[in-house]
Amino acid sequence: MAETMLEVEGLRAGYGPAEILFGVSLRLARGEVAALMGRNGAGKSTTLKAMMGLVPPRAGRVRFAGRDITGLAAFRIARLGLGYVPEDRRIFTDLTVVENLEVGRRPAEGRDLWTPERLFEVFPNLASMRHRRAAAMSGGEQQMLAIARTLMGNPEAVLLDEPSEGLAPVILELMADAVLRMKREGIAVLLSEQNFDFAAAVADRAYVIERGEIRYDGSMAALDADPALRAQHLSL
Amino acid sequence: MSVEFSFLLVQALSGLASASSLFIIASGLTLVFGVTRIVNFAHGSFYMLGAYVAVTIVPWLLQIERSPTLFFAGVLISACVVGVLGVLMEILLLRRIYKVPELFQLLATFGVVLMVQDAVLKIWGPLDIPGPRAPGLRHGVMILDQRFPAYELFLIAAGPVVLGLLWLLMHKTRFGILLRAATRDRDMVGALGVNQALLFTGTLFLGAFLAGLGGALQIPRVSASAQMDLSIITEAFVVTVIGGMGSIGGAFLAALLIGQLQAFGVLIFPKITLVLVFLLMALVLVVKPWGLLGRPESAAGHTALPEGIMQPRGFAVAEKLLLLLAVLAAASVPIFGDTYTIKVATEVLIFALAAFSLNFLVGNGGIVSFGHAAYFGLGAYASGLLVTKLGMPMEPALIAAPLAGGFFAALFGFFIVRLQGIYLAMLTLAFAQIAYAVCFQWVEVTGGDNGIVGVWPSAWAASRSAYHYIVLVAAMAGILALRHVIYAPFGASLRAARDSAQRAEAIGIDVRTHRWLGFTIAGAAAGLAGGLYAFSKGSIDPTLLGIPLSVDFLAMILLGGMQTVMGPVLGAAAFHSIKDVFMPLTDHWRFLLGASIIALVLIFPRGLGGAYAALRARFSGGAP
Amino acid sequence: MTLLVVENLNKNFGGVVAARNVSFSLAAGEILAMIGPNGAGKSTSFNMVGGQLRPDSGRVLLAGQDITGLPPRAVCRLGVGRSFQVAQTFLSMSVQENLQMALIAHAGRTRDMLARSSALYRDEALALLDQVGMAKVADRPMGALAYGDVKRVELAIALSGAPRLLLMDEPTAGMAPAERAALMRLVAGIARRSAIGVLFTEHDMDAVFAHADRILVLVRGEIIAAGTPEDVRANPEVQRVYLGTSGLRAALRARAAAHG
Fold first, then answer.
1. Cα–Cα distance between A138 and A195 in angstroms, integer?
2. What average pLDDT does this structure show over B99-117?
3. Which domain holds residue C20?
C-alpha cells in the first residue's frame, strides 16, 4: 500500500448541541483521489471542516503526513501543506482574480511551485479575467478560482468540498480535468461529492457517509461496476 | 453677491478641511473594525496621544531647524509611536477578547480610554498644550476676497492623499490584500495559511497610526487637551457608522458629508450642529441599516447561550433576610450616618435603580444600550427645568421625570429597536449624544455647560434624611416593579426574543413592538432615577447624559453580574461606594477604574452576582 | 377543504431563481415531504409558506384564507406551527418554561406585566411535553439537553398552538441515527391522530420514505416530480438527479481515459 498521506480515525464533531459526525474514519494515500459521497446533511462538509480545524473535533484523530494535526489552528494545518477548498467557495468577492491568488500564495520547499501563470494553463478561463473582481464571475469560474487559490499554497493534499455543485456539464468536465491534473502533480485529493458520475470519473477510492458514519469503504471501480451496491448506498 | 459667494466658498473649504481630518481618524477605526470586528473606543485615545506626542516631539525637532521637513517628520514619528501603542493594546488586551460578547469588548476598550486619560494627565499635566504652527504653512491664502489659512488647504489635500495611500496599500501590497480578504472572511484567510494574530496586530498598528496621524496633524489648529479623546471618538463613530462599518470608501464619503453639514449647519442652525450630525446618522441608519457602503453583519451563534439573565428565580429564605437587612441598613443610614454618608447612600439607591433599568434592557432583553445615561439625564433635566424655570414644586416635577425618560426612550427607541448588534449599540450612543448636545448647546434654557443650580426638594423633604427616605421608597418601588415585570410574561417575552427572535416570531410574538415597549419602560425608570438625582444634588448639568455616566451604568451591571436579576443593585452599591471612597484618595481614579473594568472583563466576566450564583450552585449541588 | 394550497410561488434572489412556479396542496392529516439537492429551493419555498420570506408572485392559502406575505407571527396565529433546521428554542429557560412561554404567546398574554409567568399554564405545558416524551426533563435547563431532546421539545413548542399545519425544516438534522426514526414516528403519530397537516423537508431518505404520504422533488427551484413514495422512487428523472447525469457520464469517462 502506498504511503499514507491523510488518516482520520473516529472523528466526532458538530455545531453547538447538534451532532453531525459519529466517528468517521478514512485514509488517503499519497497522490490518491478519494471521493467522500453521501447526501446533503450526511456529514461530508463537516468531516472536511473538522479535518481542517475549522470545526473543533470532539473526539478522534487526524494525521497528515505523519503528524497529528487534530485540533490545530486552521492556518497551521494549511502551512503544513493541507489545502482546503470550501463548499460555498468563499471567494473574496471584493478582490480580483490575481488578488485572490495572492491571498493563497505560500511558498513551499522542494516542490515545483504553482504560479498564477501555471494555474492559468490549468484554468484557461481565469487567464482572461485576471483583474476582474471575483464578485463579477460565474459560479464555475469562482469554483476554479477557489481551487487555484488553494493550489497557490503548494499543498501536498487538498480537501475539495463539493467541487461539482451547481456547475454546468461543460464546466464539470474542466473541473474533472483539474482534479486529474492535481493527481498527476502528485497531490492527494479528498473530495466530497454528490454527483456520482463526477466522483467516478476522478476518484480511485470511494467512501460513502450516511448520518455521520462511513457506510462504504472500497475502490471506486467496484462501486461503479456494481449497480446493486450503488443503489444500496446512494440511491433513494 | 461676490462677498457672499466667497464666504460660502471659504465655508465649504473649511468643511473640507475638517472632513479630511475626520476621515484620517475614522479610516483607522473602520479598518480595525472591518478586520477584528471590535469597536475600539480607545481609538479616540490614540488620536489624543498622537496630538500629545506631537506637541512634545515636534517643537524639539523644530529647535534643530524650523523646516517643514522636520515638522512633518515629527508628525510621522508621532503617528508611528501611537501605532506601536496600538500593537501593545492588541497583544495585551484585544487578543484576549476577540471571542467575548461585543458589550464586553466595548467596555474593555473604554477601560483603556480611562487609563489613557489619567496617563496623559500624569505625563503632560492638566493644562492644554498648544502646538507649534507648521513652518511654511503659517500664512494665509487669499481666496477671492477672503483669507484662508494655508495649513487648512494642506489638510484638505491630506485627506485624499491618505485615501490614495490607503488605496495603494490595500491594493498593491500583500498585507493590504490580506486585510481586504480578512474583512470579508477571516476564517477563510486562516484556512489559506495566514496567521490571523499577526494580521490583527498589523491592523492595529495601522489603525492606531492613522488615529495618531490625525491627532498629530491637528496640533497647529488645536491645543492638545485631555478632553479630545471622547469628543473625537463620537464623531469618528458617526463617520464609520454612516459610511458603513469596515468600509474605507464609505468613511470618506461620510466624512465629506459631515464636514459640509457642520460647515453650513453652523450658518443655518448655529445652536444644533452636533444634533444635525447625529440626526443624519439616525436618518441614514433608518434607510440603510448597515450604512452607506456597509454590508449586513452575518448572524452569528444563534445556538449559543445568551449573555444575560437566565431563569430568574425567587429569593431563598436567607436571601429574603439579606434583602431585609439591606433595606433596614439603607433605612437606618440617616439615624446613624453623617451627612456625607447619607448623601452617598442616597446616590447608591438612585444608581441602583438606574443600573437595574439598564440591566432590564441588556441582561433581560439583550438590547445593548450604550447611551442609557440619556434617559437618566433627560429625567433629571425635566425635573430640574420644571422646578427652576416654571417654579413647580418637587412632587409633580418628580412625576415628570419618568414621563420624560419614557417619552424620549419611546421616541429614540422606535428607531433603535429596528437595528441589530453593534449598529444598535451605536445608535443608542448617537441618540444619547444628540440629547447631550441639546443640553450642552441650548444655553438659554439648559444653562449649557454649567447647567442649572437650585433644584431643591420641597420644604418637607429638604433635609438630607427626609430626602433619603423619599429616594429609598421611590427607588425600591421602581426596582421592585421592574423586577416584577422581569418575572411577568412581558419580561419572559423579552428574554424569549433575546434567546431566539426567530422562535419568538414563530410562536406569535411581535418582537419589535415588545422590544420597543421594553426600551420605553427602561427609559422611564432611568428617568425617575435621574429626577431623584437632580433633587439630591440640587443641580443639573450635561454630564448627567454623558458617555462616562453611561459607561458607569454598564460597569455597574457588569460588576454586579448582568445575568442576575438583583446583581445590578449590588454592582451599583459596590461601584459607587468604591468610586466614592477611592476618588478622593487618589488622583488616578480613572486609571484604577479603567484597569478594574478591563480586569473584570478578562478575569471576572460574570460579575459579583455571577460569582455568588456559582457559589450558591456549588453548595446546593444544583445546576448553575 | 384542502388545508394548504400553494399556487405558482416565484422567488428570485438577485437574478438567481430560488423558486419557479411552485404549486402544491396538502390535506389535513396528510404528510408531505419536500426533497431535492442543496440549493434546490426547498428552504425558500418552505419559508414562503411560513412567512419568513415574501414571494415575488404567487399565493399561499391556508384553509381558504390568503396568507401570502404575512409575517411569521401572523401565520402562527392562524394555526401554523413550525420547527427550524437548527432547533430554535429559548436557551435561557427550562424545558417547561419554553412551553409555558409558547402557551403565553398563543394566549396573547405576552404584554402582561402583572402575572408571574412561571405560574402560568404549567399543567398544559407538562401535557404537551408528555406528548413528545419529555415530561421527565421538564425542570432541566434547555441548554443542558441532548440535541435530539431539544428537537423533541421544539416539536412540542410547534404543537403548543394546536396548529392545523406543521412546518418542519429538516426535523432530523443533527440528530443521532437512533433518535431520528423515533422522532419521525412521533411526528407521524401525532399528525394522524390530530389530523394535522405536515410539510417537511428532509435529507434522511429513510424518514421520507417511511412516513410521507406524498413527496415533492425540487430541483433548481422547480418541482420536477410529485407523487407517492413509490411513484417518486420509480421516476427516472428523480433517479438522474440523485445519481448524477448519465449523459455527462460518458463524457467524463472519456476524459478520464484520455488522462490515463
1. 20
2. 88
3. 4-79+164-259
